[in-house]
Amino acid sequence: MATSTYLSNPKVQVGAAIGSITDITDQVSAATLTVTKEALEDTAFGSTSRTMTAGLFSNTLTLTVYASYASSESYSVLSALLGTKCTIKVNPNDASDSATNPGFILTDTYLAAIPVINASLGELSTWEIEFQGGVYSVDTTA
User: Which residues is 75 bridged to in the sheet?
Assistant: First the structure.
């Protein structure tokens, strides 16, 4: 039985570098950061089972973002990062970085695409944005 629970309400910040990031929390409804260490096969002749060793990290962050074309909203912030390496930071909540609210950071992550429009009659328009690669780190200092 779980002894700790987590109510999802993350803080999401994105920008060219950690010192110039913009808070887009109010424009995001979902965030999934996946940290992957690639598996490289190191099986030798004579082995009866495949074995693996760790390779490079291959990280991704997917955001569900509400479409907004107003200045300093989702389109203007994300379109400026299109085709560039950028930094993104996601915290479990809006409090300062700490051991119980770590800042998960991808530095030099790449934004390859943004769907310029995704519209359906009678629905709020959202975009699925994927940041690829980047150096993963965790900040627990305020």
Answer: none
At 8, is the pLDDT very low, low, confident or very high (cuts 50, 70, 90)? confident
- How many CA within 13 A on the CB side of residue 79? 13
CA distance linking residue 63 with residue 122, whole number of Å: 22
What residue type is 13 in one-letter code? Answer: Q
Domain that holds residue 79: 11-42+50-139
Q: 62 pLDDT exceeds 80?
A: yes
The residue whose two tokens read 């999401």 is 12
- Torsion, CA 39, CA 63, CA 33, CA 21, rounded to 10: 120
Give me the pLDDT at residue 2, please.
61
What is the residue-wise DSSP string for 98-142?
Answer: BTTB-EEEEEEEEE----S----TTS--EEEEEEE--EEEEE---
Q: Count the domains in the chain.
A: 1
The number of CA neighbours under 13 Å toward the Cβ of 57 is 15
